Amino acid sequence: HFVIRGTIPGAMDSTEIILAPNGRYNNRIATGYVINEKFELQGKAHEPVYCRLSMNNQDIIDRKGLRNENLTKYAEIDFFVENGELTFQTPHIDSLPESFWRYDIRKEKNYTLKGSKAQNIFFRYQQQTIPLRHEIRTLERAYSENGRIEDFKTLQEQQSKLENLTKAFIQENRNLAVNLHLVEQLKKEAFTYDQAYLDELGELFISYQDTCAGLQQFRQYLQQARAYVQGKALQEGEIITPDGKKTSLLSQLKKDRYTVI
User: Fold this and answer.
1) Per-residue pLDDT tens for 75-120?
2) How far apart are alpha carbons 65 and 191 in whole angstroms?
3) 160-168: which pairs have CB atoms within 8 A and are 24 or more residues apart?
4) What residues have CB less than 8 Å from 3, skipping those under 6 apart?
5) Distance CA 214, CA 74 (A)
6) Measured between alpha carbons, how far is 221 from 230 in angstroms, rounded to an integer?
7) Are 197 and 230 in contact (CB under 8 A)?
8) What does the alpha-carbon distance between residue 101 and residue 137 come to, in Å, rounded to a whole number?
9) In the sheet where 112-114 sits, what is the strand order?
């Protein structure tokens, strides 16, 4: 079993605390409440699991009829949990990352969870990549607002840097739970990668003999992703034309030209 004991200065009494794997609140593994700026959660983790700790005092604000927006606190913190005695600390609730679009990556340095080997490794990754991830998030917002091609090109360059840093980190740190979480960030959309890229991802885990479900699922993904590599010959299929007739897919392709379907 695990026990998480935390201290959150500035947190309102009865603020609800929810711990859920990957933020799936319908599968929460522990819940609790803040009392005198402290909380305690208990549960069980069969293996190190990536969780989201959420804090929300909106229910208290509503019940007390308080209208001061400065009293409303939403916070979301991600870390790895494993069995043992764990300790969560932060300088103040206002220093924690907030939920939704107000999430600030730079605030990930303002909390610690001690007692988990997996989290110790993941924390190092977080700290190493905070500046780069913050810049990427800023560029994504800028490009979505103004559509400047210069922002898009810079975004691609920074994303490539983060990919290389993540692959290097996986190679240097042999913690299967953390590495399987990080490699999820390296998966790409169909036909935006080639077979060499899939082979590179596979090489990162080639020495692991573990039979855990997560590793099996990742290796299964690599096999399935082979069907969507760049340069893969298009297979025959049946399509329906605008007038409702069935026709051969390959018969519609224009030789040495692009075909929009």
Assistant:
1) 899 999 999 999 999 999 999 998 767 889 999 999 999 999 999 9
2) 53
3) 161/132, 162/129, 162/132, 162/133, 162/136, 165/128, 165/129, 165/132, 166/125, 166/129, 167/200, 167/204
4) 40, 41, 42, 84, 85, 86
5) 31
6) 16
7) no
8) 11
9) 38-43, 2-7, 84-89, 112-114
Give long-range contacts, CB 8 A cutoff, 24+ apart: 30-38: 30/4, 34/8, 37/7, 37/8, 37/9, 37/10, 37/11, 38/5, 38/6, 38/7, 38/8
- Structure-block tokens of residue 149: 């091609």
Residue 39 neighbours by CB distance under 10 Å:
22
Q: What is the pLDDT of residues 126-141, one digit of tens each?
A: 999 999 999 999 999 9
User: Rounded distance, CA 25 to CA 28, Å?
Assistant: 5
Residue type, 117: K
Residues 97 and 77: their CA atoms lie apart, in Å, by 7
Beta bridge partners, 70, equal none
The answer to whether the CB of 180 falls within 8 A of the CB of 214 is: yes
Q: Where are the beta strands (DSSP E) in the chain?
A: 2-7, 16-21, 30-33, 38-43, 49-56, 74-81, 84-89, 112-114, 238-240, 246-248
Q: How far, CA to CA in Å, does 207 sit from each of 18, 203, 204, 213?
A: 36, 8, 8, 16
How many helices (H) and strands (E) in the chain? 6, 10
Contact 44/1 with Cβ under 8 angstroms?
Answer: yes
